[in-house]
UniProtKB/TrEMBL annotation:
InterPro entries: Cro/C1-type_HTH, Lambda_DNA-bd_dom_sf
PROSITE patterns, alphabetized: HTH_CROC1 (PS50943)
Entry's transmembrane regions: none
A GO MF label: DNA binding
Source organism (scientific name): Samsonia erythrinae
Organism superkingdom: Bacteria
Pfam families: HTH_3
Lineage: Bacteria, Pseudomonadati, Pseudomonadota, Gammaproteobacteria, Enterobacterales
Record-given protein name: Transcriptional regulator with XRE-family HTH domain
SUPFAM superfamilies found in the cross-reference section: lambda repressor-like DNA-binding domains
Length: 101
């Protein structure tokens, strides 16, 4: 398994190559995604940017569906589906405070 820094570097390289393969400049991507050119540059360089920025750029590059599928549940059987549905509907229990409020 790769280290987190290696994964970030790989994703940033792929993102840059995808942009270039679509013959888009950083300014094009920035304008279409509603972010600054420096933010696109930071993303491609692996500098700290938010997940929302990554999602916006991925969508501009036509790769939003792959990103959306990132944490899809692994369902191989009906039992897996039922287990997933049951766990997905669990509610967090609110605890009462110990000081009587």
């Amino acid at each position: 398994m790769k280290k987190p820094d290696e994964v970030v570097k790989l994703l940033c390289e792929r993102l840059r190559k995808e942009r270039l393969s679509q013959q888009m400049t950083q300014a094009d991507v920035a304008a279409r995604s509603g972010i600054g050119v420096n933010t696109v540059s930071n993303l491609e360089s692996g500098r700290n940017v938010g997940v929302g920025t990554l999602v916006r750029v991925a969508m501009v590059l036509g790769r939003g569906s792959e990103l959306a599928a990132l944490f899809m549940p692994k369902i191989d059987s009906l039992d897996d589906l039922l287990r997933y549905e049951k766990n997905a509907t669990r509610q967090r229990i609110k605890r009462s405070s110990s000081d009587g409020e």
